[in-house]
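Hi Y.,

Following your request, here is the sequence exactly as I used it, all 75 residues.
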Amino acid sequence: QLINEAIEANKVHKKRLEFQMLLGIREELKRQLVSKGFNVVDYIPYGQNWLPYTTRRLNERKRNVLLIMRSVFDF
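Below is the corresponding structure, written out as tokens. Let me know if you'd prefer a different format.
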């Protein structure tokens, strides 16, 4: 709902947006976005700095830890 409101308020076409989401996280939300006509790309951190990158992202938003746990362990 919030996404649709932002699109309408800014007059942006759905196909001009791209959601980048971590592979394996929020798969149901990804399916919902795709079914509504949005572009969704799986984002996969890799390379030597994947761990520092991931740690920074988790520190930025503590709630992401719970999100990852739910996605990995399906609870």
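The CA atoms of residues 15 and 25 lie 22 Å apart.

Thanks again,
Q.
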